[in-house]
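Teaching assistant's notes for section 4

Start the section by putting this record on the projector. Ask students to predict, before seeing the second block, whether Reverse transcriptase domain-containing protein will look compact or extended. Collect guesses on the board.
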Amino acid sequence: MSRDELLVLRKTLNELLDKGFIRDFLDDFVSAYVDDILIFTDGSRREHREKVDKVLEKLDAAGLQLDLKKCEFEVQSTKYLGYIIEAGKGIYMDPEKIKAIQEWKAPTTAKGVLGFLGFANFYRRFIKGFSNLVAPLVSLTRKNVPFQWNQETELAFRKLKKAFITAPVLMQFDPERETILATDSSGYCTGGVLQQFDDDGFLRPVAFFSKKNLPAECNYPIYDKELLAAHRKTQKSKETRITETCYYQKKPWQSNLDRHDQDNSDKNHLPLRNNGKRHSNKTKY
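Reveal the predicted structure now:
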């Protein structure tokens, strides 16, 4: 399929999604992106087949046909949008992508660094402190800065490649489970991890996040930087839920954030929830 044909296909499928052919099922038991559709079930095989039939009926009504050679049915593990999703375990990186990272040679130009960072950035949710790790490499991509690959950038390059090998399997977010948002901050980056308890009571990561601070943000006290990380995560992520109500004294920086978000405060507010279950403090990565 040519690039133009692919663009037309994507436009058509997005229009069908907008018209609601499978909208009733989205985020319930269906995930769809462009021409990829994932149907998932936390139940019996019979229930799963009923859901598959519903989706197939919708696609047939829209005049769409599936290529059976590219379909998988009733599998426990599948590749979807660059990730491997395995029932009962979670989400992990595609081994082929990890291999590509490991075989990547040290860049010799700023453009080469951008290519490496662009590839690695796709999996940043798996990497703890991603922004902090890549900071020396990002500095090589600035305008009017001579390219100089030195010991610091080589070390950052190797650390990032190692992080891909040791990255944990992420737990699929479940809005019904107790959720913890833990944040941390360094001098110029803020970040943290969204976690949930699994069926065995272990606290597992759902996603890591990090972002470089603006110059003014670098001057915040450490507790304000960590609150800034929490604010960023709750504003950005669709899956974020905080389980316990937290009240804290307003700081000057938060007032600035309030003014910045006042027009969107209602839609950006994420309700707090707690399922009331008691869990151990065990952590499993």
